[in-house]
């Protein structure tokens, strides 16, 4: 089936093994995501495009599905070679335009989140953020239309995996989904600071579930994910992800019943092998499911000094 969407696989050192970039052939010639900023990654991107007769200099537009390093790492190199405009979520504006100030805000947020979770883990946003020298940036919102490859793509804002995720959907039901939907792994609904610094902490798993409900309602022919092979039957995948959430909630209820009271204590029970900065991924996973349980009235929490402690709510007998 000819869709005019060509995949370029780029190796990564992460458990996902590779990340996908997508070339949308036609006017304007568009590249969706770009892999990591390392020389080997850029060479693989260049080679992958060359197999379709395309050079960096030929790219007219770059679309960013979300602001994680394995998806944005080659943006600067491609734009410097081509002068292509960049399309990214409005939610990414502060990250792109404020640079180091936004890095510091993220770092302060994660330090406070770890303290409240009862953990001493250190997570620096510089692990996945970088200095942006992007020019000609177009910020898009939910419902906007992006012209790529001779057709109109509707933008869906799908926060959850990050605050900056977007999905592109064309009239034929092809969806370029970044990490919003992945066929072989469940994307972490990662805790991040709010886009608006004055807003409270987002609850990413609740947002992610709402985003997936919206995606589930779409009639899609094929989903092009950020990792893994393109796939059909997105509804079955989403239903599996929802079932996984229920299984994780059951594990957390059990951990609380056995005496765990903090996010860090639950995380150690569920993920005992996690060490170093990646402990933050476990904390984020647990916090997201506690948010879900709290939204259902199954758990409650209170501050104990600088640490938040969680308890189960007794089931009503009435």
Structure description:
This protein has 318 residues and is α/β, with parallel strands linked by helices. The chain folds into two domains: 236 residues, Metallo-beta-lactamase, Chain A (4-Layer Sandwich); 69 residues, Winged helix-like DNA-binding domain superfamily/Winged helix DNA-binding domain (Arc Repressor Mutant, subunit A, Orthogonal Bundle), CATH 1.10.10. The chain contains nine helices and 13 strands. The chain has a six-stranded mixed beta sheet, covered by helices on one side. A five-stranded mixed beta sheet has the order 7-8-9-10-11, with no helix packed on it. β10, α6 and β11 form a beta-alpha-beta unit. α7 packs across α9. The model has no long low-confidence stretch (mean pLDDT 94). Pfam families: Lactamase_B. InterPro entries: Metallo-B-lactamas (IPR001279), RibonucZ/Hydroxyglut_hydro (IPR036866), Sec-metab_biosynth-thioest (IPR050662). This is Beta-lactamase domain protein.
């Amino acid at each position: 089936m000819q869709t005019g969407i060509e995949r370029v696989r780029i190796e990564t050192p992460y458990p996902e093994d590779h990340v996908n970039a997508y070339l949308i052939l036609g006017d304007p010639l568009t590249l969706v995501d770009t892999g990591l900023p390392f020389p080997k990654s850029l060479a693989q991107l260049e080679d992958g495009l060359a197999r379709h007769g395309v050079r960096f200099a030929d790219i007219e537009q770059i679309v960013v599905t979300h602001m994680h390093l394995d998806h944005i790492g080659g943006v600067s190199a491609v734009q410097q070679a081509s002068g292509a405009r960049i399309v990214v979520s409005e939610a990414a504006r502060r990250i792109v335009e404020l640079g180091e100030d936004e890095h510091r805000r993220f770092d302060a947020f994660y330090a406070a989140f770890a303290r409240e979770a009862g953990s001493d883990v250190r997570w620096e946003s510089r692990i996945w953020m970088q200095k942006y020298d992007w020019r000609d940036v177009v910020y898009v919102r939910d419902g906007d239309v992006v012209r790529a490859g001779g057709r109109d793509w509707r933008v869906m804002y799908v926060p959850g995996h990050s605050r900056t995720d977007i999905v592109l959907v064309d009239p034929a039901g092809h969806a370029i989904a970044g990490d919003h939907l992945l066929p072989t792994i469940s994307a972490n609904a990662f805790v991040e600071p709010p886009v608006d610094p004055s807003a409270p902490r987002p609850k990413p798993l609740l947002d992610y579930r709402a985003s997936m409900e919206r995606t589930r309602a779409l009639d899609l022919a094929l989903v092009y994910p950020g990792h893994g092979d393109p796939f059909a039957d997105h509804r079955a995948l989403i239903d599996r992800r929802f079932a996984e959430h229920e299984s994780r909630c059951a594990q957390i209820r059990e951990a609380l019943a056995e005496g765990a009271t903090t996010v860090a204590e639950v995380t150690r029970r569920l993920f005992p092998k996690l060490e170093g900065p990646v402990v933050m991924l476990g904390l984020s996973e647990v916090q997201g499911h506690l948010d879900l349980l709290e939204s259902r009235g199954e758990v409650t929490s209170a501050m104990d000094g600088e640490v938040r402690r969680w308890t189960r709510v007794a089931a009503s007998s009435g």
